[in-house]
């Protein structure tokens, strides 16, 4: 069942080009049209005034990424909340806001309860982005987008995450089209980005030998810091979660601009700092944040795309991800942080597919 792979997580990381192209096929079959989200979507999407995303763990980070897309592409306000927090607070519900739940399993109890609670509070419409057909959460939703990642066995979510991002990107573009913000030329451009995504992800997978060398340096560390800015900040969060979850190395993620408001105090020469630094509009800001780290002796491990123009220097290691792929760049940059966590865990000899204390599907509170 594992074929040439040592663990399900490794297999699932490598299945991403296929999982993505299968999920993208669904988008191509419908185009960026409401029908992508089920029959009810044609009447629901045009009246929306906002989006509220509810999810846990990695699925929550997919939601955080989507917020950037939904607000910038569709011009719709979007807030993202951890399901287990939302369900216990007196939240404000605007019936014109679409509730979007994101769940690989479709059975996560906190996400399910958050959805029920949102309905009680008055939300009328709910979209489920889910990987398991006919599971509890899509059954309780009026709109559905199924990711086509296939079965995910490893506790660490990998291909589920990147395919969720495809569904969420399609939601952002579809909403943008409905609202007249995405014209035919922009739509063609977004379709093109999607078509190229599996190829770029395959390029990122080819970085595995270099990432393995980095992982050897990480495996003896107690702590690590992940930095990103803008739409790559959620990828830093995801990288830190993956590392914690399977290698048991304590890791935290910060938006790089926040460093000097506290976490910079942690940085010394025993703190590896991973930076997601592709060539986007915030790159120059990220570079100056990196200098702050270097000045305190922190060792930098930088994922930079071909256009970021970084060079290696003392204490600065660089791995080049593929040429900047545009809006979908966070999807491509999820791959190297998954592989870094996987190889760090291998080095430490942990149970990669079944990390201690965790379950694949969290059906308890
Ligand atoms: O099945 P779900 O997507 O609802 O699961 C949510 C989280 O439990 C899950 O993403 C968890 O954080 C992963 N183990 C992270 O790798």
From TrEMBL:
Annotated GO biological process: amino sugar biosynthetic process; carbohydrate metabolic process; fructose 6-phosphate metabolic process; protein N-linked glycosylation; UDP-N-acetylglucosamine metabolic process
**Localization terms from the record:** Cytoplasm
Keywords on record: Aminotransferase, Cytoplasm, Glutamine amidotransferase, Repeat, Transferase
Top enzyme category = transferase
Q: What does this protein do?
A: Catalyzes the first step in hexosamine metabolism, converting fructose-6P into glucosamine-6P using glutamine as a nitrogen source.
User: Quaternary arrangement and interactors, per the entry?
Assistant: Homodimer.
Q: What is this protein called?
A: Glutamine--fructose-6-phosphate aminotransferase [isomerizing]
Q: Which gene encodes it?
A: glmS
């Amino acid at each position: 069942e594992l074929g040439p792979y040592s663990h399900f997580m490794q297999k699932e990381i490598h299945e991403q080009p296929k999982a993505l192209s299968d999920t993208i096929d669904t988008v191509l079959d419908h185009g960026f049209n409401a029908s992508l989200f089920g029959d009810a979507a044609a009447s629901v999407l045009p009246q929306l005034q906002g989006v509220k995303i509810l999810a846990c763990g990695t699925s929550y980070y997919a939601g955080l990424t989507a917020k950037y897309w939904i607000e910038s592409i569709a011009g719709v306000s979007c807030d993202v909340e951890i399901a287990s927090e939302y369900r216990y607070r007196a939240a404000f519900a605007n019936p014109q806001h679409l509730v979007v739940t994101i769940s690989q399993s479709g059975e996560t109890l906190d996400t399910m309860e958050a959805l029920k609670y949102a309905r009680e509070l008055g939300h009328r419409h709910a979209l489920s982005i889910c990987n398991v057909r006919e599971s509890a959460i899509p059954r309780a939703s009026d709109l559905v987008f199924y990711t086509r990642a296939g079965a995910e066995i490893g506790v660490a979510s990998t291909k589920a995450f990147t395919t969720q991002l495809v569904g969420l990107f399609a939601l952002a573009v579809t909403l943008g089209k409905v609202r007249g913000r995405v014209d035919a030329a922009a739509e063609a451009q977004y379709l093109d980005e999607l078509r190229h995504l599996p190829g770029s992800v395959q390029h990122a997978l080819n970085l595995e030998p270099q990432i393995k060398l980095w992982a050897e340096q990480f495996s003896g560390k107690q702590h690590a810091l992940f930095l990103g800015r803008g739409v790559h900040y959620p990828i830093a969060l995801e990288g830190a979660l993956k590392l914690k979850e399977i290698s048991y190395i304590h890791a935290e993620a910060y938006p790089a601009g926040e460093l000097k408001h506290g976490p910079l105090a942690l940085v010394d020469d025993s703190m590896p700092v991973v930076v997601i630094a592709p060539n986007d509009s915030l790159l120059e800001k990220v570079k100056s944040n990196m200098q702050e780290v270097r000045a305190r002796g922190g060792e930098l491990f930088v994922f930079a795309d071909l256009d970021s123009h970084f060079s290696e220097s003392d204490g600065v290691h660089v791995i080049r991800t593929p040429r900047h792929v545009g809006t979908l760049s966070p999807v491509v940059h999820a791959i190297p942080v998954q592989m870094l966590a996987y190889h760090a865990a291998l080095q430490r000899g942990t149970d990669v597919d079944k990390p201690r204390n965790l379950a694949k599907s969290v059906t308890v509170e």
